[in-house]
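Write out the 3D structure for:
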Amino acid sequence: MIDVDHKASLLRDRVLQAPRMGQRRLVAIVGAPASGKSTLAERLAEKLCAAACPSQVVPMDGFHLHNQILVDRQLLSKKGAPETFDARGLLHLVERLHDESDVFFPLFDRQRDISIVGAGFIAPNSDTIIIEGNYLLLDAPVWRDLSQHWDLSIMLEVALSELRERLIQRWLDFGLPRDKAIARAEENDLVNAQVVTMHSLDADFIV
């Protein structure tokens, strides 16, 4: 199995060769929950920066709706599904990332389970922005409008059996007892994983 560092090296060369639609190059890294998007995105950004290509990561998770809104809409048990995100807000941000010089974005604090508005900032010298998230290629209203903005899109493919183990371990690490960790993984996260697998548009590159 190719390790993350090697994957990032291969993708760095692919990114550097990709044409761009605006002043900044926009790269989407897409995959199911626990597929390794965040780790790969950070490692890729490091390698691009080392290659004199200043890069930053923008996680889609900053667009989680607040828990009280999910409670009011009876969606809290489905948190992480497409309808529990502010898809239009994400699209508006992506539209600005190409060329605007002064761009802030929200970040998700997993420990507190809350999004923080304006917690991230795109540096003026950033050449490439790596956006990572589950639904960046989702073939559904609003979400599909994102695809026209990617200069390069990358899909991570991981077997469901492997995702299941990773997801259970994730919830165990957050302090859930094993039975609840298994339930959280199987009843919510793996359902969302299948949405990504079955309803995403084609990516430019599959890892």
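The mean pLDDT is 93.
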